[in-house]
Amino acid sequence: xxxxxxxxxxxxxxxxxxxxxxxxxxxxxxxxxxxxxxxxxxxxxxxxxxxxxxxxxxxxxxxxxxxxxxxxxxxxxxxxxxxxxxxxxxxxxxxxxxxxxxxxxxxxxxxx
Length: 112
What we know:
Elements lengths: L17 E5 L13 E6 L5 E7 L21 E7 L7 E5 L5 E4 L10
Antiparallel strand pairs: 1-2, 3-4, 4-5, 5-6
């Protein structure tokens, strides 16, 4: 991990600033240096990514690609470009862990 690199996760649903991919071997929901796999910076200052549902703070999968059996990881990621009037893209994760793009009726980021 680079010095000064942020390894704290937000809990407000805003994923626009970037995200972390890590293992949580000790189950403390905190990122230690040894657990970090990759950190991703914001994709672009004009891209907005807002999560709703259980994925507001974290989206977790077991090593086999499954989500916890209690369905606690279902939610949606709304992604849009701030300078565009096109419809946002929405990626949904259902209770079984199936990930898919879902249709959106709203337009632009203001409704995301």
